[in-house]
Amino acid sequence: MPVRVDAEARRRHIVDAALRLIVRGGIAAATFRKVAAEADLNIGSVRHYFADHESLVVAVATEVGDRMGQRLTRHPAPGNGDREAARRHLLAVLAELVPLDEERHREAVVLLEVIAASRLDPAFGPVVRQMAAELRQVLTDAVAATGTADPAAAAAHLAALVSGLSLDAVTPHGSVDRATLLTVLERHVAIL
């Protein structure tokens, strides 16, 4: 009798293997051959789910974005107009977006790899633009609840801050630690 495979579970397994490879060696490390070995599958299984390298990398970036989105849903916006509660909510949202733990560190590495690759590979452009738009919207909504006069401008500022902090936290460029990340976020929220 043929073995039944849960297609969605297999696809997730392949994406997780590719994510680990990207974290360790960048996008170029996530070849079908290496992903198959990392997932303990044959290369045909990887090809069955992904037409090419780019579609696999886009699936990894999308998975990272989905994970971040799921974490953000754990922080519902306060609905009572309390500015301090809104600031605490904004800080909680920002904390989900920077590499404060190993999971968020891996996610930041993947996102930075895909963002950098999108400069030269148009296949990554749509997912990068979509994630940037979603980030701006989440931040705009969270900032608006604080009563800030221009929430879109403040959200753009915070998006740049998140990107810069993430870059510094995951590269030798800055090597920012968790305490510094939180302090910088707290200071920026306080001045809104």
From TrEMBL:
The keyword DNA-binding applies. Keywords: DNA-binding, Repressor, Transcription, Transcription regulation. It comes from the Bacteria. Pfam families: TetR_C_6, TetR_N. The keyword Acetylation does not apply. Residues 8-68 form the HTH tetR-type domain. Residues 31-50 bind DNA. Signal peptide: none annotated. This is TetR family transcriptional regulator C-terminal domain-containing protein.
